[in-house]
Write a structure and sequence with these properties.
mainly beta
Length: about 120
């Protein structure tokens, strides 16, 4: 307090400096490979049983990266759409995934890429 008036404390962290936008859309979307085993790790001692029509969550799948996003801690995330297979069917999923689970798709991966 100074002269009976409470003083404002300086903010911690962001100092009001100009910032770049956190979202970077990609037009057109970029073909990537998503490592689902890294994205959804399994426990050390699973208790489940095999199901032939269960979700196939422990493989590398092709996806389309449509946007990069910078989180408040400074890590990059990608907005990716990819298919999750279950039995003979599949369903499209779109969500943010950490950048380290993605890698660019190469010409040799063409058989895995969606058309």
């Amino acid at each position: 307090m100074v002269d009976g008036v409470p003083r404002r404390l300086a903010s911690i962290g962001y100092n009001g400096q100009p910032l770049r936008p956190p979202l970077r859309p990609l037009r057109p979307a970029v073909q990537v490979l998503v490592d689902l085993a890294a994205l959804f790790p399994r426990p050390a001692h699973p208790t489940g049983r095999y199901h032939p029509q269960g979700l196939q969550m422990h493989r590398v799948v092709a996806g389309r990266l449509s946007c990069w996003g910078l989180c408040e801690q400074g890590d990059w995330w990608g907005l990716v759409t990819y298919d999750v297979s279950f039995g003979a069917d599949s369903a499209a999923v779109t969500h943010w995934v950490p950048a380290w689970t993605l890698r660019p798709a190469e010409a040799g991966d063409k058989a895995r890429l969606p058309r």
